[in-house]
From TrEMBL:
Domain annotation GST N-terminal: ranges: 41-122
SUPFAM superfamilies named in the record: GST C-terminal domain-like (SSF47616), Thioredoxin-like (SSF52833)
Native organism: Nicrophorus vespilloides (Boreal carrion beetle)
Name of the protein: Ganglioside-induced differentiation-associated protein 1
Sequence intervals crossing the membrane: 326-346
InterPro entries: Glutathione-S-Trfase_C-like, Glutathione-S-Trfase_C_sf, Glutathione_S-Trfase, Glutathione_S-Trfase_N, GST_C, Thioredoxin-like_sf
UniProt keyword terms in alphabetical order: Coiled coil, Membrane, Signal, Transmembrane, Transmembrane helix
Signal peptide: 1-20
Length: 350
């Protein structure tokens, strides 16, 4: 499997295969088919477009308008278990940021790193220092409770308990969901196979196997999954209350904790985006359940950083077609165009 190197903006273009370049030998610094490149003046992000934690880092990079190169790790194909990638991140997870020789794993650490190292005058700040202690404390609090929600369990659990979900959206449409479930059910085998084939990574992969089996239990057990959904309810209640408390201010300019967009807003935005894609928006905010969150989510979708970090409809179509053989792909594409077309017609009529 050869990871793909793209320019940061490449994947936003429709059918961008021309712009995507496979790693070539000369790009690589290692001899094992890896994609680790030596960039000595700039940032390189290892990520996947549909990864929740990757999307947070992408949004931070775009908010701060920092240029970066990227290397896509093909999670559906197990690219995160390749020996060369385990050298970059022994946890076998995306995202990882490479800044010259330095490797920084974990989305929270990456965002803090960006905030600490790229803070000269005209780079937007995601943790405003000049607004005082109270605002910073609030940012830390909301960021913390939002980041504690286990996004992977939320995502996978929604596939195993479709009765709890109303209208899943792209990219989590039926063929993609089936693919996710198939891979999840076979992940132990996949990890064991990788461990057999790569004795030097065996230890790490077997650790991951243990972790996976515990997670699988939670995901497939309805009671446990419902308690994760309750945790989401609690956090969203607090967020709704916070947003409501700004109603007397000039609301157009207010985000979660401040009148500037902060790290807490990144955590909130990517969570709302994921909940919406999984089909939980009806349960959590639609129809005036949480009107301030509903308004917030509409408003944040207008931000440039959102548009650049969340794959668009064309990207989704391509994914669906790739996952399934042509025939089903075409049917899904046709269906989605009908839905999207219908949506625009209805919007025009209203
Ligand atoms: N704590 C990490 C979590 C990263 C994480 O769980 N990434 C997922 C994708 S969203 C992943 O790489 N999963 C692949 C695997 O565990 O096999 C962070 O915040 O970056
Ligand atoms: C499960 O994974 C193993 C190891 O990668 C593979 O050989 C096998 O074909 C997979 N089985 C299914 C049902 O996908």
């Amino acid at each position: 499997m050869t990871p793909i190197i793209t320019h940061s903006a490449a994947f936003f273009f429709v059918f961008d295969s021309v712009l995507l370049q496979s790693c070539t030998r000369s790009d690589m610094s290692l001899d094992d088919g890896s994609c680790r490149i030596n960039i000595c003046n700039g940032l390189l992000l290892y990520y996947h477009q549909y990864s929740f934690y990757s999307q947070k880092v992408l949004m931070a990079l775009h908010e701060k308008k920092l240029p970066f190169e990227s290397c896509i790790i093909d999670l559906p194909k197990g690219g995160q278990y390749e020996p060369w990638y385990l050298q970059i991140n022994p946890r076998g997870e995306v995202p990882v940021l490479q800044d010259c020789g330095k490797l920084i794993p974990d989305s929270t650490r990456i965002i803090d790193y960006l905030e600490d190292h790229f803070c000269i005058a005209d780079i937007p700040k995601l943790i405003p220092m000049e607004e005082g202690f109270e605002v910073r404390q609030r940012i830390t609090y909301y960021r913390h409770i939002l980041d504690q929600i286990p996004a992977g369990i939320l995502t996978m659990g929604s596939f195993f308990h479709p009765e709890l979900v109303k209208r899943p959206k792209a990219p989590f449409l039926p063929p993609v969901r089936k693919n996710f479930i198939r891979t999840e059910n076979n992940r132990s085998e996949i990890l064991k196979a990788h461990a057999e084939n790569n004795p030097e990574c065996r230890h790490i992969l077997l650790k991951k196997l243990e972790f996976h089996e515990r997670r699988h239990q939670i995901v497939t057990n309805k009671e446990e999954f419902l308690s994760v959904l309750n945790q989401v309810e609690d956090v969203l209640d607090k967020v709704e209350e916070e947003l409501a408390s700004h109603n007397h201010k000039n609301q157009e300019n207010w985000w979660l904790c401040s009148n500037t967009f902060t790290v807490a807003d990144i955590s909130l935005t990517i969570l709302l985006e994921r909940l919406n894609q999984l089909g939980f928006e009806c349960a959590f905010w639609k129809d005036s359940r949480r009107p301030n969150i509903e308004k917030y989510y509409k408003r944040v979708q207008e931000r440039e950083s959102y548009k650049k970090s969340i794959p668009n409809i064309f990207f989704h179509l391509k994914t669906v077609v790739r996952v399934k053989p042509i025939a089903i792909g075409c049917a899904v594409v046709a269906g989605m165009f009908l839905i999207v077309g219908g949506f625009f017609i209805i919007r025009k009529m209203m």
